[in-house]
Amino acid sequence: MITTWLSREFGIEIPVLGAPMGGRAGGALAGAVSAAGGLGLLGAARYNTPEWIEAEADVARSIGGKFGVGLMTWSLPENELMLDTAIAVKPTMITLSFGDPAAYVGRIHDAGIPVVSQINTLEDLRIVEAAGVDAVIAQGGEAGGHTGHIGTLPLLQEILEATSLPVLAAGGIGTGRGLAAVLAAGAEGVMIGTALLASPETVGPDYARDRVVEAGSADTVYTSVFDRARSQPWPQRWGGRAIANDFTAAWDGVDVDEDTLAKAYDPSDPNNGVVYAGEAVGLVHGTHPAGDVVRRIGADAERHLSAVRLS
């Protein structure tokens, strides 16, 4: 069994977090990750509601016991009830990512809940350190969904050298080899998302799972075009990595207004709707249950690390 700060602190068997993917990670997925020995997080996106958090928390708890809630920090000022509800459902962890969490960390700590922030630069690290978070996740640009521009391995090394906080890694990690690699570098665990996207527990259209299985690692694009088409006001510094499709081919990089993009966008069309996924998508070869994915990653990482220690 692999033991790290993450596994000891949160009482889990495998140092793996299930990413709080907006529109994909509900209670069934979070619960399945936790039941397998990791810790699954609900993806409480800007377009979700407090009632959604309450309902999905009940599902996650019934399946896996432990669960976390992931929130988009930049969107909280317009609806702090999302945070209040996240605290009220008593998760094992709350992640505050994409923005300065200083206004919220104290409130979460007062409820006895640890706070972890996903970061994309060294400057982000300094901001969340000052806010008093308990750990950070170095998320590289290989990650699916909204992310930064620096690759996972350079960013992870930079963050590990710069902080005494526990550091996890995210972006491009989809197998036990990836988990073993970042643990060997000094990370305390990983957050995975793309590796779980084809699992039957994910929320979303069936075509999304099919696209993930069919795509290769070179088939993603970093773009803000889906945010603009769906009127999602993400801060400009964070684009999203998605599987390229007919919509990105037609509109990515084209100077048009958001009304035009909205009229052209059809989320029900498999060749048009957004499927956020990272470069690890080339490692997803079937629609395997999330628990099987997590257990396999843990077992394979332990095997690879043992082989290194014995060699």
Number of helical segments?
13
CATH class of the largest domain: Alpha Beta
Gyration radius from CA atoms, angstroms? 18 Å
**Strand proportion:** 15-25%
Total beta strand runs = 11
Derived from helix and strand composition plus strand pairing, the structural class reads alpha/beta
The helix content is 40-55%
CATH superfamily of the largest domain: Aldolase class I
Order of helices and strands: HEHEHEHEHEHEEHEHEHEHEHHH
Enzyme class: oxidoreductase
GO molecular function, one term: monooxygenase activity
Protein name: Nitronate monooxygenase
Pfam families: NMO
Spell out the blueprint of helices and strands:
Blueprint: H1 5-10, E1 16-18, H2 27-35, E2 39-44, H3 50-64, E3 68-72, H4 81-88, E4 93-97, H5 102-110, E5 115-119, H6 122-131, E6 135-139, E7 145-147, H7 152-162, E8 167-170, H8 176-185, E9 190-192, H9 206-214, E10 220-223, H10 225-229, E11 239-243, H11 246-251, H12 258-264, H13 290-310
Parallel strand pairs: 1-2, 1-9, 2-3, 3-4, 4-5, 5-6, 6-8, 8-9
Antiparallel strand pairs: 7-11, 10-11
Helix pairs in contact: 2-3, 3-4, 8-13
